[in-house]
Amino acid sequence: MTANKNYLIFVVDDNKILNRVTTEHLKKNGYFNVRSFFSGEECLDSLKKRLIPDIVVEDYNMTGMNGIDVLKAVKKKHLQTQFIFLTSNDDIEIAVNTIKYGAFDYIVKDSMSMEKLVYKIDTLSEFLQLQKNNTQAGWLKIALIIVVLLAIFLSAYLYFVLAA
Predict the structure, then answer these.
(1) Of 61, 93, 114, 155, whose CB has the highest number of CB atoms within 10 Å?
(2) First vs last C-alpha separation in the chain
(3) Closest Cα partner for 124 from 53, 23, 67, 62?
(4) What's the CA dihedral at 4, 104, 56, 34 to 10 degrees?
(5) 9 forms bridges with which residues in the sheet?
(6) CA distances in angstroms from 132 to 4, 122, 140, 145, 156, listed in the order given
């Protein structure tokens, strides 16, 4: 299965250079639906405009809100939004807390972090697509069961009405 590259991705990093590098790298790798934000507050403001990301790639240390604050605020209303932290903070306790609060992954910035990020987003995209397919298949099964039950009920009703 190939990754779905149409998911809406937010990049949230107050370092304008790293923000642009991350955004451009994702676009170069086929993720064209990428929005860039320079603070957690700016990211949260976009949610008020009904712009709901599928994936948020964010730094942990930012001016104002930190990454966990943004994660908690978004997850409070949009549980399906997935988070990948891309940060220079290599504190294991912070990494564990991000996962505890629902982050998909925590990547420490290094010379390979952009490649790791694309790999993680590809993996996450495939997971989200499978999840979507399973949900659709589940609804289809429910609809089929209802149709079969209605057919059985109608058949039984007609049998007893015609037999009387």
Answers:
(1) 114
(2) 57
(3) 53
(4) -30
(5) 34, 55
(6) 11, 15, 12, 20, 36
Q: Domain extents for the chain?
A: 9-133
Which residue in this structure is represented by tokens 């910035």?
109
As a whole number of angstroms, the distance between CA 38 and CA 44 comes to 11
Kindly report the backbone phi and psi dihedral angles of residue 98, in degrees, each rounded to the nearest multiple of 5, phi listed first: -65, -40
Q: Are 19 and 36 in contact (CB under 8 A)?
A: yes
User: Residue 17 has what pLDDT?
Assistant: 96
Given this model, what pLDDT does residue 59 score?
97
Mean pLDDT of 13-28: 96
Q: What is the CATH number of domain 9-133?
A: 3.40.50.2300
Is the separation of the CB atoms in 76 and 82 below 8 Å? no
Give the span between the Cα atoms of 55 and 7, in whole angstroms.
7
AA letter at 92? I
**What is the C-alpha to C-alpha distance for residues 7 and 16, in angstroms, rounded to an integer?**
23
The residue behind tokens 């609809």 is 143
**pLDDT tens digit sequence for 84-118:** 999 999 999 999 999 999 999 999 999 999 999 99
Tokens of 88: 């220079």
| Average pLDDT of the residues of the chain | 90
